[in-house]
Specification:
Largest sheet of chain B: 4 strands, antiparallel
Number of domains of chain B: 2
Strand content of chain A: 15-25%
Largest sheet of chain A: 3 strands, mixed
Helix content of chain B: 10-25%
Radius of gyration of chain A: 20 Å
Strand content of chain B: 25-35%
Oligomer: heterodimer
Helix content of chain A: 25-40%
Low-confidence stretches of chain A: 47-58, 83-194, 200-223
Strand order of the largest sheet of chain A: 2-4-7
Number of domains of chain A: 2
Low-confidence stretches of chain B: none
Number of helices of chain A: 4
CATH class of the largest domain in chain B: Mainly Beta
Distance between the termini of chain A: 37 Å
Shape of chain B: elongated
Distance between the termini of chain B: 41 Å
CATH topology of the largest domain in chain B: Jelly Rolls
Mean pLDDT of chain B: 85
CATH architecture of the largest domain in chain B: Sandwich
Order of helices and strands of chain A: EHEEHEEEEEEEEHH
Structural class of chain A: alpha/beta
Strand order of the largest sheet of chain B: 6-3-9-10
Shape of chain A: globular
Structural class of chain B: alpha+beta
């Protein structure tokens, strides 16, 4: 995560005096021969200090890209900026994509705004605006939640609602959700989805208890 | 790491360990201005009596130095766990890994052995500031905040947002465990919700977690996820 900075997050030096969080993380994966596990790398950029968005994103994305190239002989994975949380001065939300040069469909669930960025420095930048107010689905409504603990039994997937994660405050927390797919028209996708989502949300609110007790196949998933 | 907000003379530390406790750890002080905002300006220095290689848990009484010295920031760097289980038993390994400290008492010990504690132990924001590099992944039903928006995967996948296309799915890493994440993916697969990629983790730097510790988690998660989805 980057907030108000355009460089590596620095940490207390290790025995070798290394202080780059990202550099040490990459070095650790490389030392264990697991760097290729990463299909993409995402980062957040919280621009609370009201500086240039483009400067931030470009700089931070390039920084990560460069770190990988320095530490790996293989091709760096795509880099995604997934939670910029633009400052209030931005009256609308953004969606930004730096194309990766290969199909990389994604959704992202930002806290308050809707921006997805994929970085490959040598490619062009695409950017669209989203009406952020349309992208606030209603809350739990008794539905399966990514922060719930999941149990998988012989009888099928069951959700056990007895334990929950504080990660609700993070990127799977108070969500607006955006679907982005290269080659689609993002704006029309969102408008259509937002209308449908509001309708679904209202229905779920009215029938919360009913929805909470059964899933699509009729199996009880939440009590 | 503790921050009592200003320099105090220190030569003694009492640690009330839970289970599991640290067998091997260092008690260190910071010689610079701010280890959070300026983490690379200097390095941590181990107290003369701050290297423990055979901790036994319980209440550890450490004499950090012969004479009190002015210290503001202190950290306990734990590197070997006892892996002894707490009173929940061994059914869940999370009850038996890592480290548990119930309370710390930092201050001075006089010549006659009397201990003067500098730490504020109040159960409110006035307590002495303490930073932890990780958190307990246990959560209880009362932890749920119903006032926050929390969309679920079922709503997301059935809302029309994805248009039936695969989606990137987040899993909890620092606050979770590999089995939960694997079960989450198994759940989505069982419901035939298409997945393109899995995004692991969240703001590790903001948790003061060392990159090597975060990397160690990264080695475990893909292994567990690939068991349910070889990709």
């Amino acid at each position: 995560m980057f907030q108000g900075v355009n460089h590596d997050i620095q940490v207390w030096p290790d025995a070798q005096g290394r202080t780059s969080w990202l550099g040490r993380f990459i070095a650790y994966l490389k030392a264990h021969n697991r760097l290729n596990d990463l299909a993409f790398v995402s980062f957040e950029h919280l621009s609370h200090d009201n500086r240039s968005q483009a400067f931030y994103l470009d700089g931070a994305g390039r920084r990560i890209w460069t770190r990988f190239r320095q530490r790996s002989s293989s091709r760096p994975p795509p880099v995604a900026e997934v939670q910029p949380n633009p400052v209030p001065a931005h009256d609308a939300s953004y969606l930004t994509i730096w194309t990766t040069g290969r199909p990389f469909p994604t959704l992202k669930m930002p806290d308050q705004t809707q921006r997805v960025v994929f970085v490959q420095p040598e490619r062009d930048i695409r950017r669209d605006r989203y009406p952020g107010s349309l992208l606030r689905p209603r809350g739990r409504e008794g539905l399966a939640n990514p922060e719930d603990r999941f149990s998988h039994t012989n009888e099928g997937p069951l959700i056990t609602p007895r334990r929950h994660s504080p990660q609700r405050r993070s990127n799977v927390g108070n969500l607006g959700m955006v679907w982005v797919h290269l080659g689609t028209t993002e704006r029309s996708v969102v408008r259509r989805s937002a209308r449908k989502l509001r309708r679904i949300s209202n229905e779920f609110t009215a029938t919360n208890q009913k929805v909470a007790s059964s899933n699509l196949s009729g199996r009880t998933i939440l009590q | 790491m503790t921050d009592p907000a200003s320099n105090y003379d220190v030569n003694a530390l009492h640690i009330s360990w839970g289970e599991p406790y640290a067998r091997r750890y260092l008690v260190q002080y910071w010689t610079g201005e701010d280890p959070i905002k300026q983490p690379t300006s200097v390095a941590w220095v181990t107290f003369l009596g701050g290297e423990i290689s055979s901790g036994r848990g319980g209440i550890a009484t450490l004499k950090l130095g012969a004479q009190p010295m002015p210290v503001r920031y202190l950290r306990i760097w734990m590197t070997e766990s006892s892996n002894t289980c707490d009173d929940h038993g061994s059914a869940d390994k999370r009850d038996c890994v890592g480290y548990a400290i119930r309370e710390i008492y930092l201050g001075t010990t006089s010549a006659d052995g009397e201990f003067f504690d500098l730490v504020r132990h109040t159960p409110d924001p006035d307590q002495t500031t303490t930073y932890c590099s990780s958190v307990d992944p246990w959560h209880e039903p009362q932890d749920v905040n119903e006032k926050r928006d929390q969309a679920g995967f079922d709503l997301f996948y059935t809302s029309g947002y994805t248009r039936g296309l695969p989606a990137v799915v987040p899993i909890s890493l620092i606050y979770g465990n590999p089995e939960d994440s694997a079960n989450q993916i198994a759940y989505l697969k069982a419901r035939r919700f298409p997945i393109s990629y899995v995004e692991m983790g969240e703001e590790p730097d903001g948790q003061y977690m060392l990159p090597e510790d975060y990397g160690a988690l990264y080695l475990q998660w893909p292994t567990a996820l690939h068991r349910v989805d070889p990709l």
